[in-house]
Amino acid sequence: DAKTTQPPSMDCAEGRAANLPCNHSTISGNEYVYWYRQIHSQGPQYIIHGLKNNETNEMASLIITEDRKSSTLILPHATLRDTAVYYCIVRRNYGGSQGNLIFGKGTKLSVKP
Amino acid sequence: DTAVSQTPKYLVTQMGNDKSIKCEQNLGHDTMYWYKQDSKKFLKIMFSYNNKELIINETVPNRFSPKSPDKAHLNLHINSLELGDSAVYFCASSLRDGTGELFFGEGSRLTVL
Questions:
Q1: Taking residues A90-102, what's their average pLDDT?
Q2: Which residues of A fall within a CB distance of 8 Å from B44?
Q3: Rounded distance, CA A95 to CA B75, Å?
Q4: What is the mean pLDDT of the segment spanning A53-70?
Q5: In chain B, which end has fewer C-beta atoms inside a 10 angstrom radius, N or C?
Q6: B 74-103: CB under 8 A from A
C-alpha cells in the first residue's frame, strides 16, 4: 500500500474549521483514501473515505486533489471532542492482506477553547 | 448495544502465564481482526478472519493464536506471555474482507509484569 505523510500535530480553535492535510504521492489508481481517528483511550473510529471525488458525510468532508497525490480532511466546526489522532490511510479494496488498514503515526489534532 | 465488544478491558498478569481476550460483534459482519497498539502508539494488524477462516497472519509469534468459534466471535489466546506483549489489543470487524470501514472495539489493555 502507498505510504502517507501527515504533520505530527496541529491546533485548531473551537468552532473553527480544522483542515488536516495528507500526502500520498505514490497512490495508485485503485487505492482509496481512508480517514480514521482515535480519541484518547478509545478504539479507532472511521470518518470517511473516497477514491477521487470529494466526499461529505455528517462528520467531515474529504477533498482529494485532481492528481490524487494529496487530500484534506475538513472538520467544519471543530469541538473539544474532536481532539484526537487522525490517521490518513491509503488502501486497496481487495481481500486478504491487500485490503489491510496500515496505520501510520497520524496527526494529533488539539482543539482549544 | 455495543457493536464490537471486548473483554476484559484491563488484564494484568505475570510473565509466562497464558491468557485470553474475547471479542464479539453484533453487526453481522463477515470479517474480524486483531490489532496491537504498543507503547509508542503504533497500531499494527495481527490477524484477520473471514467467515471463520484465517486469511492473514502478519508474522505474529505463534504464541498468539486467534480462535473463532463462529463468525461473531474472534478470541485471542496468548501463551507464555512476555514483557513485550504489554500493549492495547483492539478487535475490529468489517462487512466484507478488505473493503469498507472497520468498526473497532474499545481495546483491552494487557500489562505483563
A1: 71
A2: 103
A3: 21
A4: 96
A5: N
A6: 90, 92, 96-103
Determine the pLDDT at residue A94: 65
Q: Is B58 on the interface with A (CB under 8 A)?
A: yes
- Which chain B residues are closer than 8 Å to A102 by Cβ? 45
Residue A49: band (very low, low, confident or very high) from pLDDT cuts 50, 70, 90: very high
φ and ψ of A60, to 5 deg:
-160, 175
Residue B52 has pLDDT above 70, yes or no: no
A53 touching B, CB under 8 A?
no
> Residue B35: pLDDT above 80?
yes
Q: Report chain B residues whose CB lies below 8 A from the CB of A41.
A: 107
State percent of chain A over pLDDT 70: 92
Give the residue, B13 or B99, on which the prediction is more confident.
B13
Question: Residue A45 forms beta bridges with which residues?
Answer: A37
The single-letter DSSP state of residue B79 is -
Is pLDDT of A44 > 90? yes
In eight-state DSSP terms, residue A17 is: -
3-state secondary structure of B74: strand
Residue partners of A41: CB distance under 8 A and separation at least 6: B107
State whether residue A101 sits within 8 Å of chain B by CB: yes
> Does residue B27 belong to the interface with chain A, where contact is any CB pair within 8 Å?
no
Cβ-based contacts under 8 A for chains A and B: 60
